[in-house]
Amino acid sequence: EKGGYDYFMLKEIAEQPKAVADTLLGRIDASGSLTLDEVRIPAGELREVDKVVVVACGTAFHAGLIAKYAIEHWTRIPCEVELASEFRYRDPILDGRSLVIAISQSGETMDTLMALRHAREQGSKVLAICNTNGSTIPRESDAVLYTHAGPEVAVASTKAFLTQLVACYLVALYLGQVRGTKWGDEIGAVIRDLSQISGEVERVLETMEPVRALARSLASKNTVLFLGRHVGYPVALEGALKLKELAYMHAEGFAAGELKHGPIALIEDDLPVVVVVPSPRGRSVLHDKIVSNIQEIRARGARTIVIAEEGDEAVVPYADHLIRIPATPTLLQPLVATVPLQVFACELATARGNEVDQPRNLAKSVTVE
Ligand code: F6R
């Protein structure tokens, strides 16, 4: 059942190109437009939406953080992302023009379910992004966009995360398409890029051996830090979460711009710091900023593990270890940048003798508070 792999997690990491392709299947028509028939919220209502609120937990929350960048850029609708466990216990401001997106692999997470119930009581429409057919969250939502990752058995989420990202991009692009934003041309181009992306994920998987070797060499470390900017920031958070749950190591993700507001004090000799570098094309300011961040931490002794696009030569002098990923549009980069972090955490966990598929103290589906 593990298909020749030692762990379900390895199998599920390897299944990601297919999971991504399956989640796109049938949702882009021959003319390059999106056909999301499942989103049964009428176009007229979607045009009236004046706020999007994403609620989720854990890895799904990280997908939501990335969705915010995409939704606000492509639709210009303000978007908030909140941990479901926080959202449900405050008094969020919602009404009939708010669209709430609940992201959940299992469809049974109690906090996410309670958050969506609260949203519906306020008259908001709820769209679920979910991987489990007929589970509670989609049943209680107004509409559901299923991720087609297939069953995810390992407790640590991998392929579900990538498909949640794909679903978030589809929703963001669909909202842009329905509302006719000024990014019309860009939306068409991104849809084309998205339809190629599964091949890029495959290419990343083919180059993971050095990442595994690096992970093994760090097995006796206590702490690993992760830095990113823009969509690379949630990727850093996801990399840190994977390492905590699998390797039981102290791992933290930071927005690189926050370094000098505190975290840089943590940098000491030979501390491994993983940096997710945005594309040097497009928003190149971001890229230049992060190159200076890498220089800053390296000058203070950090061992820099740099994840950067192929052809990005500016990072080379400052990278103790360089992990290459294919060039993608900035907003789609998390689909390729997350994969090495999953492999890294999985290999570190194995090297430390941990149970990869069943980390201590964790359950696959959190149906209690
Ligand atoms: C992390 C992980 C958890 C889940 C979280 C939400 O690897 O698996 O953080 O992402 O418990 O679960 P779902 O998506 O089922 O609501």
Automatic annotation (TrEMBL):
Any GO MF annotation of the entry: carbohydrate derivative binding
Keyword Cytoplasm in record: yes
List of catalytic residues: K364
Cellular localization per UniProt: Cytoplasm
Keywords assigned by UniProt, alphabetized: Aminotransferase, Cytoplasm, Glutamine amidotransferase, Repeat, Transferase
GO cellular component: cytosol
An example Gene Ontology biological process: fructose 6-phosphate metabolic process
Keyword Manganese on entry: no
Subunit structure: Homodimer.
Reported function: Catalyzes the first step in hexosamine metabolism, converting fructose-6P into glucosamine-6P using glutamine as a nitrogen source.
Name assigned to this protein: Glutamine--fructose-6-phosphate aminotransferase [isomerizing]
Lineage: Bacteria, Bacillati, Actinomycetota, Actinomycetes, Kitasatosporales
Residues of the full protein shown: 247 to 615 of 615
